[in-house]
Amino acid sequence: MNYFPDEVLEHVFDFIASHRDRNSVSLVCKSWYRIEKFSRTKVFIGNCYAISPERLIARFPGIKSLTLKGKPHFADFNLVPHDWGGFVYPWIEALARCRVGLEELRLKRMVVSDESLELLSRSFPNFKALVLVSCEGFTTDGLAAVAANCRFLRELDLQENEIEDHRGQWLNCFSDSCTSLVSLNFACLKGEINLAALERLVARSPNLKSLRVNRAVPLETLQRLLMRAPQLADLGVGSYVHDPTSDAYRKLKDTMQNCTSIRSLSGFLEVAPRCLSTIYTICPNLTSMNLSYAPGISGAELIKLIQHCRKLQRIWILDCIGDKGLAIVASTCKELQELRVFPSDPYGVGNAAVTEEGLVAISAGCPKLHSLLYFCQQMTNAALITVANNCPNFTCFRLCILDPMKPDPVTSQPLDEGYGAIVQSCKRITRLSLSGLLTDQVFHYIGMYAKQVEMLSIAFAGDSDKSMLYVLNGCKKLRKLEIMNCPFGNVALLEDMGKYETMRSLWMSSCEITLGGCKTLAKKMPRLNVEIINENNQIEFNPEDRQKVEKMYLYRSLVGPRNDAPEFVWTL
Amino acid sequence: MEGGVAYENDLNLKATELRLGLPGTDESEQQSLICVRNSKRPLPDAGNECLPKGKSDAQHQTIPAAKAQIVGWPPIRSYRKNSFQQKKDEAEGHGIYVKVSMDGAPYLRKIDLKGYKGYPELLKASENMFKFTIGEYSEREGYKGSEYVPTYEDKDGDWMLVGDVPWDMFMGSCKRLRIMKGSEARGLGCGV
């Protein structure tokens, strides 16, 4: 295979973007390995504890773009204690020390300190993009450092982070010569911001394509921002409160007419009723809409809005749209590919906001639908079977029936047959989340049919170890398995220990596994880190092997047990 | 675990039963709390205490998860949940009402922390309410210039000096306020 000089191979490899493909390329032969190694610029690390920064840098010295994920997924739902880990500082410190030419950093579920942001901002002169999703540990002071020091910053994207807002002047910290911004998203910030500084920043950013502001940005400012940036493609509105008879309203309406490039809309963190008609002009061009943080928009207004949006491909909304509203979505949005319906009242009961009817309507009307996250009050087998027949193209199917273990309300049966139909029909499912009353049978189906599943989330399901065994044996492509409140024990855990080395991670909480079982696993599999989270000293000082383990998280790792685990995390 | 279920038929032992939880809480709520945290799935065919027996109970509502707030359920990102809660509070006009006591005053007052934008307004309002003056705040020395010191009880049950933490953090952790007076105050935060 050495017919081509290195430069040619490098050029060819440039066209290979997917990290999985590049991984395959590097396995072909030594020279391909070497060429690929030095030409790889983007690296994705799904679990920051699977590898160390030093080894990453040694393996890919030319790295420019790094994506890191920290805490296990269930940390999103308060199942992982604060201080569990996922600190980004050691990574930034190592990259800085080794003078890596870092340009992009994307983090998810990691702990980011102001100190790390400051170090980041000072260490990489070409730094261009910072994307933080579901992170915590920093304040607006850290943002100020990034703004001040990253002179060529293109992207600052903060999604759903817990940021302590010091109400400082971080927006002022962008230097006057910084004109490179393409994307700015600070919707999750809770505090006030300097509106004048924001306007000046937008005015000097001719390449700005995406702007998502927080609720401190009022409508008048929004209008001025849109005047300066009519080229925006993605807009996140903060506060949308105005009086329909006011000047501000008329001005905004006019300005909106010029915003012909907007394809994506989100925010509306504060909305006054009957204010939305101003945005009808941009609706026909929208391909993506996220109104899931806008409880101020009533179901009726949502429906009116969506009727103008025939080109929508992605919709994130609240369940106040109701089944009838979803039927209208189904008849209007024929290009729909991804739908997420969130509960407007997670602990409410009886406000039958959306049920199986809405989902069936969507499946019938939207043939291109392949990604679903649906929080509902109830689901029936009949509905799931219909959905399975209507939409065989699902890649991501996540159903959350708010009442755990709820059976089919019509037949009182478990939902095994419904989900069975889904996995049998949708051969390309890679991500699956189940809920409702479920027995071992559904897992039998999953093991048999869901051959492409990579991530599976299970809660309050199954009757016995058989369920977990069906999954481990049948789902050959499984990478992430997370289980809560299921009666699965040591027999299932220990049946096929080698399987876990083919996966990224396994999470089990409130199951039947014991300390002894976890110890056995840890002993037999040295390349797995088996961590027990022992909150509130549930496991006493001299624990017995018979004791049940409340929370276990195991993952494969090339670098052994981590050295930053807090007291309540034991690596066995 | 025993207490919650023996009453189904026969004797109405419910009235005198000992059970977990505060008096006045709904028994169905107790059932669901107990059942769900047990992590043992109720088998539909075994006559399990948690699920209604038989198909005739199709209409009977099962575990009202609404009231049983299970950790980790529903699977909604805490960021999202927190923003709902805040909006709900705002929409329903829920304030953060805390008791304010002053040493020596015959009765306590209640104030809504949400009604104030920050410490200066809160302290001014307290001064007006109880007709006294608070001194100057400094991080090093607490409140100087008066024998009154504003303190609050936080979530952990500790008595803290008002003013040390950011306002939002204070709003989230303050359970009650107490204006301390005299020698006791001097121990805590009065710069002498």
Provide an overview of this structure.
Chain B: Residues 95-182 form the PB1 domain. The complex is a heterodimer of chains A (572) and B (192). By secondary structure, chain A is an alpha/beta fold. Among the domains of chain A are: 41-190, Leucine-rich repeat, LRR (right-handed beta-alpha superhelix) (Alpha-Beta Horseshoe), CATH 3.80.10; 489-571, no CATH class. Chain A contains 19 helices and 23 strands. Chain A has a 21-stranded mixed sheet, covered by helices on one side. Chain A has a two-stranded parallel sheet with strand order 5-7. In chain A, strand 3, helix 6 (114-123) and strand 4 (129-133) form a beta-alpha-beta unit. The mean pLDDT of chain A is 93. With 192 residues, chain B is α+β, with helices and mostly antiparallel strands. Chain B has helices spanning 27-37, 78-91, 119-130, 167-173, 182-188; strands at residues 97-102, 109-112, 136-138, 142-144, 148-153, 159-161, 176-181. Chain B has a five-stranded mixed sheet with strand order 2-1-7-5-6. A two-stranded antiparallel sheet of chain B has the order 3-4. The longest helix of chain B has 14 residues, at 78-91. Chain B starts with 26 loop residues before the first helix and ends with a helix. Residues 1-10 and 25-67 of chain B have low confidence and may be disordered. The interface between A and B is large, with 57 and 38 residues.
